[in-house]
Recover the amino acids of this structure.
């Protein structure tokens, strides 16, 4: 006999909340494995061309502003902290605190995208966007175009994941205000946290691979 | 045919007042289907749409075969011919074969086999069907709007520098369709881990579940790589960035590496679920436990893992390093081992079994023979020296059709015939089903065996004109395709007419073992009245004192508590 508790969050096809929690958790990990392979394809392509055209990649990397990249890294690490606190608040059933931490995460996520768009605008003015405005004049222009193609596809895909993450928070906030999450049922928050951490970790790899190739040992701001 | 006698419902009559409510009649109306979260209804949605794409791909195949009856290009122009084989490949691979067994049969029986009410994420399951529909819609639009002529592989620079504007649409369609596979994979993997009924241990799982599990692994880890690759090609076309364009320093061979990193494992998405069907059907119609259960189970996982490291055998002639070629060649030989383990174990299961030849078993026997030829000719192609001669010839075409059509399509039809009574509650005409199985087997061989010879003699694939001396073999092939087409037509009529005038199937028409045969046909919306408790091995055919219901006496035991 299955033990149906009265919790309204329990979906009909699960026996109990524990099974539902474990399934949601495992599903998210499987999904993240998929995400790793998705970005993995991009990273492999990047690796091949970086090996082939190292000089062009160094030149291209030196056109990326370390200051904004480093600032964005700090912003994202801070957002990882706030989302971890949000999960903690959800586990303890503190709805008010959960709401505040999710809002903080959202603000940091928007800040990241704001900084990113400053960088993109800057690239446009300098004529470094392949396809839209690419005026770079150098014998290595074709190879630099590949570097900037990877820069925009990789950071673009990452930004798209950030936007999806912010969308998820917009979806979660009314539920949080309604008190849908309790100490017994918080798996959407936890799984959102996993997703957000994953997106942060991608950036932790993107930042050195794109911004820090062949830099001089002192920091050029 | 003693085993096809229908049985009483497993639950004693009067036990449930709502006895006649099943998943087909619990709700009516188009909305109840298009928004259904029931895994069984979603399986049927997939069944209908994969059949549509099978017809689309079949039309492409028919036009190709008619064109090739004569050495000159009289029916189709070169461009149209290119578009036809692309349409055939894209429709058959992305929209028929990949979703066939996992999304149709897997969706229907996987949760029932493990004693669950549904898959872990019913909403994602429905979403996967919509991804499939949007992807299929975009691909169809690309075909109607002007066609694509790149081949199903979308090789650069065919798909970048030298193709028309609809390639991007088709690429995006395949990209979106990829999410359908990923969602199905995530769903099945989680379901198998977390939704098994009490007592359903890993080694009591039917081998179909092991095969689906291995397939899910490939879907989750492979599909995203081809997704990003095709997205890069689309971006390259739209924004003229040069990732694969040699004129800008890009590398077209990198595309092939990234493409085959998914698309070779995808070959196993297109065959491993079929292996799962074989294990179920062969055990049932031999009345024996599968010989070497754990070997068959782990060989599925071995194929899934090894499948990821053999992609280079598609590229022996691209100028990849000879040492890379040697490694890929060796690994490809290695993957024949787990595959052979399966064939040997099925054969050993048949040995001294009480074999009966109902139509699903007839398809299973067809599978064994055709897949064996397909698999062994694969070894010719994984040998580098012979591959140089056979690469991109009709030998390759014949090889992969023996595996994909002789293997997977036969397995899919086998599974469809096996579980049809469970899905619809109706029996089909056994005579018609057997006729179609024989027609399909003979037609298939007549179509594709001559192509081995053609390829060996040097006929390259993807050409619509050829020297006169090849005509006799091409005519034989086209004649075979006609028989094959008639076979599919008989099959279609057979299954559809069973819905109109088929006899009631009863819960267990084959006398098979497994949870799905212990519930009503068609199943109730939640599959089980109460969560079953499993106390028996899979394929307990030889145990007299089994806890399973005995066909015909309408009696149940403690195995499923009603």
């Amino acid at each position: 006999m299955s033990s149906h508790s009265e919790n309204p969050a329990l979906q009909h096809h699960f026996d109990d909340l524990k099974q539902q929690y474990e399934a949601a958790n495992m599903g998210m990990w499987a999904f993240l494995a998929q995400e790793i392979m998705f970005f993995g394809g991009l990273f492999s392509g990047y690796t091949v061309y970086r090996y082939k055209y190292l000089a062009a990649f160094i030149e291209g990397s030196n056109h990326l502003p370390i200051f904004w990249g480093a600032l964005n890294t700090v912003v994202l690490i801070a957002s990882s902290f706030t989302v971890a606190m949000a999960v903690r608040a959800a586990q303890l059933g503190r709805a008010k605190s959960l709401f505040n931490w999710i809002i903080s995460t959202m603000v940091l996520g928007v800040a990241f995208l704001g900084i990113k768009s400053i960088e993109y605008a800057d690239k446009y003015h300098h004529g470094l966007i392949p396809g839209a405005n690419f005026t770079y004049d150098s014998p290595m222009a074709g190879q630099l175009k590949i570097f900037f193609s990877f820069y925009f596809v990789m950071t673009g895909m990452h930004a798209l994941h950030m936007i999806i993450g912010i969308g998820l928070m917009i979806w979660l906030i009314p539920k949080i205000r309604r008190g849908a999450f309790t100490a017994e049922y918080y798996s959407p928050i936890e799984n959102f946290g996993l997703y957000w951490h994953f997106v942060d970790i991608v950036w932790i790899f993107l930042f050195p691979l794109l911004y820090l190739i062949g830099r001089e040992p002192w920091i050029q701001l | 045919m003693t085993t096809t006698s229908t049985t009483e419902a497993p639950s004693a009559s009067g036990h449930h007042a709502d006895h006649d409510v099943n998943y087909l009649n619990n709700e009516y109306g188009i909305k109840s289907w298009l928004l259904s979260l029931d895994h069984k209804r979603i399986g049927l949605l997939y069944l209908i749409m994969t059949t549509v794409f099978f017809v689309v791909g079949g039309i492409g195949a028919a036009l190709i075969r008619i064109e090739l009856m004569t050495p000159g290009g009289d029916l189709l122009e070169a461009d149209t011919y290119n578009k036809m084989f692309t349409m055939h490949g894209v429709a058959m691979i992305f929209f028929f074969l990949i979703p066939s067994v996992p999304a149709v049969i897997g969706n229907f029986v996987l949760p029932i086999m493990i004693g669950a009410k549904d898959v872990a994420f019913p909403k994602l399951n429905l979403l996967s069907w919509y991804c499939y529909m949007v992807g299929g819609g975009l691909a169809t639009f690309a075909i109607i709007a002007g066609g694509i002529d790149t081949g199903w592989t979308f090789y650069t620079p065919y798909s970048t520098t030298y193709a028309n504007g609809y390639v991007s649409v088709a690429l995006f369609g395949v990209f979106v369709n990829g999410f359908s596979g990923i969602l199905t994979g995530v769903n099945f993997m989680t379901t198998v881990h977390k939704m098994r009924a009490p007592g359903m241990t890993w080694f009591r799982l039917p081998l179909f579940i092991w095969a689906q599990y291995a397939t899910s692994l490939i879907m989750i880890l492979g599909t995203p790589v081809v997704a990003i690759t095709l997205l890069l090609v689309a971006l390259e076309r739209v924004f003229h960035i040069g990732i694969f364009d040699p004129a800008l320093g890009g590398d077209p061979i990198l595309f092939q590496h990234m493409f085959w990193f998914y698309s070779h494992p995808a070959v196993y998405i297109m065959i491993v679920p079929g292996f799962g069907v074989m294990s179920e059907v062969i055990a049932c119609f031999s009345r024996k436990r599968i010989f070497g259960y754990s070997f068959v189970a782990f060989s599925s996982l071995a194929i899934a893992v090894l499948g990821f490291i053999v992609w280079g055998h598609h590229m022996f002639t691209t100028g990849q390093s000879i040492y890379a070629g040697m490694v890929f060649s060796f690994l490809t030989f290695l993957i024949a081992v787990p595959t052979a383990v399966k064939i040997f174990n099925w054969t050993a299961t048949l040995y001294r079994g009480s074999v009966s030849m109902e139509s699903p078993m007839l398809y299973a026997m067809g599978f064994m023979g055709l897949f064996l030829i397909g698999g062994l000719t694969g070894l010719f192609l994984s040998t580098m020296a012979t591959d140089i001669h056979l690469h991109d010839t009709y030998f390759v075409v014949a090889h992969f059709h023996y595996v994909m059509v002789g293997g997977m399509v036969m397995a899919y039809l086998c599974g469809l015939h096996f579980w049809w009574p469970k899905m619809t509650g109706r029996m089909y005409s056994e005579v018609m089903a057997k006729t179609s199985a024989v027609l399909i087997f003979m037609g298939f061989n007549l179509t594709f065996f001559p192509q081995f010879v053609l390829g060996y003699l040097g006929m390259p694939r993807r050409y619509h004109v050829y020297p006169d001396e090849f005509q006799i073999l091409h005519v034989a092939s086209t004649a075979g395709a006609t028989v094959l087409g008639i076979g599919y037509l008989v099959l279609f009529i057979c299954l559809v007419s069973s819905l109109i005038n088929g006899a009631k199937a009863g819960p267990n028409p084959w006398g098979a073992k497994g949870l799905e045969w212990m519930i009503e046909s068609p199943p109730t919306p939640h599959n089980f009245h109460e969560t079953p408790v499993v106390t028996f091995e899979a394929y307990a055919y030889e145990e007299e004192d089994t806890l399973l219901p005995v066909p015909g006496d309408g009696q149940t035991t403690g195995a499923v508590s009603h």
User: Anything to note?
Assistant: Confidence is low (pLDDT under 50) at residues 1-5 of chain A. The longest strand of chain A covers residues 128-129.
